């Protein structure tokens, strides 16, 4: 019904594009249900496998308890039409999945999810095992004359010289951290695998990307020199509604900078939920952060990217996922910037080619401070913004139609004529966000497509499991698309 209504509202341009390729990616058939026991993951390591209740990791035992409190038995729900919490742990995946062993045995559907759940079980036990996680050591500058391929993670690990990515599991761990910087590099870099030949980049999009690449790279044919160029301005990357990505360690963000050896990058995390280092936390939060509980923040931001139980209720009503905000540890050069921006904020110079800043504020309130904008030197990213989710303030409308949410932000971005790239955590999430643009005054008919919606070569390879329903699994930054305000008239230099 909803789809029908949306189809009627859609603009002619989008309708025709839809018919062509737009949402072809989401029509993949579900794998057929295999009766009986599920197969094990291909890289199964039985010594990493534990039932949640018998896990050596207190954190994972606790997660099992949370799932038991939050998730309902799918057989009770669909067959008996009653809600009964899960209790029985599947011996193949180790997650609490059904109320009893009988219902677990009855449920042929579980085989569809079991393999992935076991993979997550083993991945998490690997991370919690206390072993030295060598795959988190990152390579330094790209040697002169070497080219890094951006086709997909595997070729990237290889050509970029990552030292220890020799298993699928290592790739999943690392992709979860690097999906944010590499999603940006994967679009902006001159060797991007998203291009006009594969029809992901539109002709309009190519103009925008060529403009940005004049700031990011030396002119075609010239050798890529290391070090900032004095005659080129920095590229400003604005991350709108930044959450978990603002708590990533700075050396993870530095991997983005290293992909552009002769550019200078300024990354701005902006949103009400950004992570801040202690130096710029408001006084009452500083006191909280001093407590031992808060100080025990998760290493490498790994748990801060998980779905917490308090988010489960919200997820049920299709609201945005809010990862926990970890207090960020920063270098001695980190400056509190409240006097400069008027909101809790910091700036941290990481090196002479990378600066990271974060401002805890709704974007619309501080947009004017960053003007004027230039499509050659400014670009916007929104990671899993949930444009199409129901508004948290106004019932009955989406967040992109709501003036107190994305509705006030996106018209400002379109006005700058700068590129905006948006990710989603599943085909459905991408489609929901793209369709939500239709019919919104100030947004619909005001933009050009620059990147058509589709899969992101640098999506996280690791599955995130919803604790309120372990059948629900998504991958961060699964898909990506991009738009830009219409009438980009600046002639090329
Ligand atoms: Zn049951
Ligand atoms: Zn199972």
Automatic annotation (TrEMBL):
Residue ranges of the region described as Disordered: 281-307
InterPro entries tied to this protein: Mss51-like_C (IPR046824), Mss51_Znf (IPR032717)
Positions of the Mitochondrial splicing suppressor 51 zinc-finger domain: 73-127
Compositional bias (Low complexity): 282-299
Residue ranges constituting the Mitochondrial splicing suppressor 51-like C-terminal domain according to the UniProt record: 181-465
Name of the featured protein: Uncharacterized protein
């Amino acid at each position: 019904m909803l789809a029908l209504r949306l189809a009627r509202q859609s603009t002619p341009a989008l309708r025709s594009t839809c018919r062509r390729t737009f949402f072809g990616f989401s029509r993949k058939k579900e794998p057929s249900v295999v009766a009986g026991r599920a197969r094990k993951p291909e890289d199964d390591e039985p010594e990493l496998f534990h039932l949640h209740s018998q896990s050596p990791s207190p954190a994972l035992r606790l997660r099992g308890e949370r799932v038991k409190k939050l998730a309902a038995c799918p057989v009770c729900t669909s067959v008996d039409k009653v809600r009964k919490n899960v209790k029985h742990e599947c011996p193949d995946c180790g997650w609490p999945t059904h109320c009893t062993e009988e219902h677990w045995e009855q449920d042929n559907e579980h085989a569809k999810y079991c393999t992935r759940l076991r993979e997550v079980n083993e991945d998490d036990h690997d991370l919690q095992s206390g072993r030295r996680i060598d795959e988190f050591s990152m390579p330094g500058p790209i040697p002169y004359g070497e080219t890094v391929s951006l086709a997909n993670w595997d070729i990237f690990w290889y050509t970029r010289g990552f030292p220890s990515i020799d298993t699928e599991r290592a790739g999943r761990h690392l992709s979860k951290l690097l999906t944010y910087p590499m999603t940006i590099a994967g679009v902006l870099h001159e060797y991007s695998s998203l291009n006009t030949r594969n029809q992901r980049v539109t002709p309009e999009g190519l103009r925008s990307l060529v403009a940005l690449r004049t700031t990011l790279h030396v002119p075609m044919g010239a050798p890529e020199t290391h070090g900032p160029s004095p005659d080129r301005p920095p590229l400003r990357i604005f991350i709108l509604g930044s959450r978990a990505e603002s708590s990533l360690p700075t050396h993870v963000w530095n991997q983005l900078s290293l992909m552009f050896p002769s550019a200078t990058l300024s990354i701005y995390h902006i949103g009400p939920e950004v992570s801040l280092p202690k130096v710029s936390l408001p006084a009452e939060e500083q006191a909280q952060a001093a407590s031992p509980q808060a100080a025990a923040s998760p290493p490498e931001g790994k748990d801060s990217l998980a779905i917490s139980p308090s988010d489960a209720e919200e997820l049920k009503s299709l609201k945005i996922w809010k990862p926990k905000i970890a207090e960020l540890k920063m270098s001695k050069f980190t400056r509190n910037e409240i006097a400069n921006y008027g909101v809790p904020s910091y700036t941290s110079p990481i090196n002479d080619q990378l600066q990271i800043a974060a401002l805890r504020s709704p974007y619309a309130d501080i947009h004017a401070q960053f003007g004027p904008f230039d499509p050659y030197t400014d670009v916007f990213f929104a990671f899993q913004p949930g444009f199409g989710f129901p508004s948290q303030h106004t019932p009955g409308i989406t967040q992109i139609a709501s003036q107190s949410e994305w509705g006030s932000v996106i018209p400002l971005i379109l006005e700058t004529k700068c590129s905006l790239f948006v990710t989603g955590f599943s085909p459905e999430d991408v489609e929901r966000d793209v369709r939500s643009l239709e019919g919104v005054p100030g947004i619909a008919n005001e933009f050009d497509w620059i990147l058509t919606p589709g899969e992101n070569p640098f999506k996280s390879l690791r599955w995130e499991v919803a604790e309120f329903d372990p059948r629900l699994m998504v991958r961060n930054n699964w898909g990506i698309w991009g738009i830009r305000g219409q009438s980009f008239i600046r002639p090329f230099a």
